[in-house]
Amino acid sequence: MTTKTTTPPLVSRLLHPDVDGLSPAYFGMVMATGIVSLAANQIGLPIVAWALFGVAGLAYLVLWWLTLLRLLRHPRRMLADVSDHLRGPGFFTMVAASSILGSQCLILLELTAVGFAFWCAAVVLWLGLTYTIFTIFTVKAEKPTLDKGINGAWLLAVVATQSIAVLATLLAARLEQPYRLDLNFLALSMWLWGGMLYIWMMSLIFYRYTFFAFSPGDLSPPYWINMGAMAISTLAGSFLIQNAQDAWFLHSIQPFIKGFTIFYWATGTWWIPMLVILGIWRHIYKRFPLRYDPLYWGAVFPLGMYAVATHQMDQAMGFHFLGTVSTAFSWVALGAWGLAFVGYLLTLIRRRPQ
């Protein structure tokens, strides 16, 4: 008589993952964890920063494994996601996740070679995704209407672009000439392009906000990227200001960079009360259920990025009066990350394998 052994549901799910419905935006978990790690580091919590760094690195490896597994098992579903107006932009989280991990390697570990490797990977991913996704969106025969085809996730393309600029400035500060000059020029170009891309996309998103019917279900968490895209633009501009002494072209346009950096920060700051009000309208007034969704990492990331960007701009500009704001948002970001992570663990435990 043989006895049949049963595998616990959680173990079975880890060994045989159901990757068919994996969200393209799940690398937002790495983005959020990585930037909250840097926020914790700047408020004097190195142990927390290192722990989150480990979580981000592990999540990055696991998500790449799941993504490749999905590509092998469900290539048609992957292609459908790439060409989908709502899900396609989520792939840009791969770029930003790679850049943020590279930034952590530079800031926490001082590993320039590893940071450069992450930067190269991010650039390759950015080139491939940018010209694949937007080409498909342009030439596909059937397209959704504006109110059905655009949301805040589109701004992940801006975040991906600016993340490359941020890592390039960090690398430039650690490399000798002529690479320092080259990286600073590339960072400036990406920073300017990211700003232009934000203007294009934000115009469409704001038009969708104000001239089409808006239901609670339409207000998905990626709308927080409205603020996050401006926060990471602020961070890139702050690093460019600090690198101006090592690049003559940055020094010559430094007033312009400073002005636009404050412009980005002010725009991102304006979005915060607006997004909080819309969140209250969604979950309290309209009673939309609040439950874990992978897209909520896209709401945690902007909080951490705003904390880090505000701190860096405060230092680069010599203001020294925004420290309280940066510290407060660092703690808010840590709390938001903790809630999202607990929600993720509960979902992982409760979900049964197919």
Structural overview:
- It is a single chain.
- This protein has helices at residues 9-15, 28-42, 46-73, 75-82, 93-108, 112-139, 146-149, 156-172, 179-211, 225-242, 248-252, 254-285, 297-317, 323-350.
- The mean pLDDT is 89.
- It starts with 8 loop residues before the first helix and ends with a helix.
- Helix 3 runs antiparallel to helix 5.
- It is mainly alpha-helical.
- It has a single domain (21-136, 146-348), classed as Glycosyltransferase.
CATH architecture: Alpha/alpha barrel
SS elements, strand count: 0
Name the helix and strand elements from N-terminus to C-terminus, one letter apiece: HHHHHHHHHHHHHH
Compute the number of structural domains: 1
Strand-helix topology:
Blueprint: H1 9-15, H2 28-42, H3 46-73, H4 75-82, H5 93-108, H6 112-139, H7 146-149, H8 156-172, H9 179-211, H10 225-242, H11 248-252, H12 254-285, H13 297-317, H14 323-350
Helix pairs in contact: 2-3, 2-5, 2-13, 2-14, 3-4, 3-5, 5-6, 5-8, 6-8, 8-9, 8-10, 9-10, 10-12, 10-13, 12-13, 13-14
List keywords for this structure.
Glycosyltransferase, 14 helices, mainly alpha
Summarize the structure.
The chain has 354 residues and is mainly alpha-helical. 73% of the residues lie in helices and 0% in strands. It starts with 8 loop residues before the first helix and ends with a helix.
